[in-house]
Design goal:
Elements: H1 2-25, H2 33-53, H3 61-82, H4 91-133
Helix pairs in contact: 1-2, 1-4, 2-3, 3-4
């Protein structure tokens, strides 16, 4: 559960940074407080959905990525309609943001997996050396 909350907060931060960048491009000066809570709701729904979709045990990684992006787009566009985001942000901008933010998250996961593999290899190498000395 702790990991899910960390992911939700990290996603919220990444989305807010991306939204701030887009707002800056459009000449925006501020993000409303309610937008921060709306983004937190979006992040929460995204990660709860990921918990469900990742339990499906999809055999093809490309299909899992398509499923994740489709779900993220669906939730983003649904909440965009509910929270009236389309009055200030065009739909195509939100779609591009979904892809960009998903890419950042995916690359972060790849980096973390690479680091975990490196650490496991180091531990195995140390164990191999230590058992060889006894």
């Amino acid at each position: 559960m702790k990991k899910v909350v960390i992911h939700i907060m990290a996603s919220t931060g990444i989305i807010l940074l991306a939204l701030s960048f887009v707002a800056l491009l459009y000449g925006g000066k501020a993000i409303f407080i309610n937008t921060i809570f709306e983004i937190t709701v979006l992040s929460t729904l995204m990660h709860l959905g990921f918990l469900v979709t990742h339990r499906l045990d999809v055999q093809y990684p490309v299909f899992e990525i398509i499923l994740d992006i489709s779900y993220t787009l669906f939730v983003t566009l649904l909440l965009g309609a509910v929270f009236q985001w389309f009055q200030s942000t065009p739909v195509w901008v939100l779609v591009i943001m979904v892809f960009a933010i998903y890419l950042v998250g995916y690359l972060t996961d790849l980096y973390r997996a690479k680091e975990e593999v490196r650490m496991i290899n180091e531990l195995l190498e140390n164990r191999k050396r230590n058992t060889g000395n006894e």
